[in-house]
Design a protein that fits this description.
Length: 210
């Protein structure tokens, strides 16, 4: 291929790329028109590819300071199923430490939790309060409880359905800051395992980014 043929090929390639870009305008370009970006389609009505509907992120959860001390992390993958609905999966790890005297007189307790969750978020009143989602999820936790000065550890699994709301502050079409408040329908205040794993409260507050 001589120099002229190479130049012609590159020109055609660039022209095709520019034409394709104009044909499939990025939904974020709607901001220039004073409109919110579309989440599942281009402004011309074409469905966005699967990869452009995915959101990746994570956050922190279970944060409590004092007695007990607790802190967790939770990576997330979410998919924009419709303009108003997100579905996703995530994992989580939470560390909880009870100082001596709260559960046992002279012994502290350490709990490590590893979990998985599937969730669904639905923007239910976008015309009145946009970016407010009903939030439902099913969470399972495998936990390991270790009591100070006691050999061995107790391990088990507990599952919980959670319901509540999430408010998302969009940063871009595929990323936002989310504040979530959920209620644990499986919380049992008189069950010591439920009490220890969920920190003595049926409410779950979570800050996440995706």
């Amino acid at each position: 291929m001589n120099y002229l043929q190479k130049l012609l090929f590159i020109t055609l390639l660039l022209s095709s790329t520019i034409a394709f870009g104009q044909l499939t305008e990025d939904p974020d370009d709607r901001r220039d028109q004073g409109k919110d970006p579309l989440r599942t389609q281009t402004p011309e009505g074409r469905p966005l590819p699967f990869g452009q509907r995915l959101r990746f992120g994570g956050g922190i959860n279970g944060f409590r300071f004092g007695n007990p001390f607790s802190l967790g992390v939770s990576p997330v993958i979410a998919y924009q199923a419709t303009e108003r609905m997100l579905v996703g999966i995530g994992g989580n790890y939470t560390y909880t430490r009870y100082k001596p005297g709260l559960l046992y007189a002279n012994q502290g307790v350490t709990i490590n939790q590893y979990g998985f969750r599937g969730f669904l978020m639905y923007e239910f009143i976008p015309s009145i309060l946009p970016n407010l989602y009903l939030h439902g999820e099913l969470q399972t936790n495998t936990y390991q409880q270790k009591i100070d000065q006691v050999a061995g550890a107790y391990t088990g699994t507990i599952a919980a359905p959670l319901v509540g709301i999430t408010y998302m502050q969009p940063i871009s079409r595929r990323f936002g800051v989310n504040l979530t408040a959920l209620y644990n329908l499986n919380y049992k205040p008189n069950d010591p395992i439920s009490y220890q794993v969920y920190g003595g409260t049926p409410f779950v507050l979570r800050l996440s980014f995706f």
